[in-house]
């Protein structure tokens, strides 16, 4: 609980994933991301919107669910009516906090006031901070809601890890999305500069970081700097943070730790910067976005972007439709995802159990969710069915040579390790560590100084974490 109350929100650039990243959230998320980046560069704090409340929280039997956008509303309106009674649905009050940047501040304030009509019965959670709440007393074990291990049998292991308190072994949060990562390759530019559009050959060319560095240099030289393999080394942060690490950001003594994989990320970034092999952009910036549609001659362009199912379906542009090859790249990883959990003071555990079961466990309901919003769902049996029978997604995006998006991603969750997740990950991975990476990459400070400054910044934000 000491850690819970000591957590401090810092203004961070949001990503498409942080908006939930389904059909309804992707475009607004990209706008939110660039808007957040602009806000962080200004001297005035961004305006925090009022909550949007659907339903009457003061009504008898009101059941309150908190989120930060409308992604869950799609499930509530299009899927759950098949599984809940009209009376149960009529009791649901949905609170939209208006954005992920301030969601935690708002929900923390309400959690400290159980008598408030808006006190959550269920709260939605992002992967970057889910452990903050899972490791607190504010959430209850899903087994108390009637959800069994058999109900969770089709979930991908890494998502179960994200929702489980490793100290007690209790699972408190369940995810309806699975978000395995990949590299997305633009086929026309790959043909021109890499000599192939074959997925297996491209994977062989980019299956290690040494190869990524070498190919980046090759592309830059061949194009005269008009085309780069990657937009910026910032694109790689989730691969390292959510896949390559073997240690958490701090140890059992709350001492800050920098895993060797993160030091490798710094070295790769420095080499890419030294070779002038990227455009040194940051994800979600306008210059980064423009590189998706460059022609590589009159306008600058990139061959590869970091991706995952929601990004492939909803964030790539028309330039990439029927022109994208998906490959794993050097490392398996995850990027984003939304889960939900019932609070310990939930007013109706039976209804909470039904909502969690039909949003995150039931195979047919998960197929229905895919049809409703295109999510790559956290259910192996549902994904097998969708792979065999087609996705109900409204996205018209296709890959090069009819590569199957679902077929590609269906085994990419295997081998992902999320047991290192901590409640502080979002701010450390997205705000604090990128500063250290950039300082080292551009030569502003040496490795030891960059790491020392990073550890100090983590301690400043989370005073209970110690610097050795």
Give a written overview of the molecule.
The chain is of the alpha/beta class and 468 residues long. It has 2 domains: 2-179 and 335-395, Periplasmic binding protein-like II (D-Maltodextrin-Binding Protein, domain 2, 3-Layer(aba) Sandwich); 182-331 and 420-461, 3-Layer(aba) Sandwich (D-Maltodextrin-Binding Protein, domain 2). Helices cover 40% and strands 10% of the residues. It contains 20 helices and 12 strands. The protein has helices spanning 2-6, 26-41, 71-78, 86-90, 103-111, 130-134, 157-162, 187-193, 199-205, 209-223, 237-244, 260-274, 286-290, 309-314, 349-360, 363-373, 380-389, 405-409, 425-441, 447-461; strands at 52-54, 63-67, 92-96, 122-126, 164-165, 170-171, 174-175, 182-186, 227-230, 301-307, 324-327, 338-342. The protein has a 6-stranded mixed beta sheet. A 4-stranded mixed beta sheet has the order 9-10-8-11. A two-stranded antiparallel sheet has the order 5-6. α3 crosses α16 (363-373) and α16 (363-373) packs across α17. The longest helix has 17 residues, at 425-441. The two termini are 23 Å apart. Mean pLDDT is 91; it is low at 1-43.
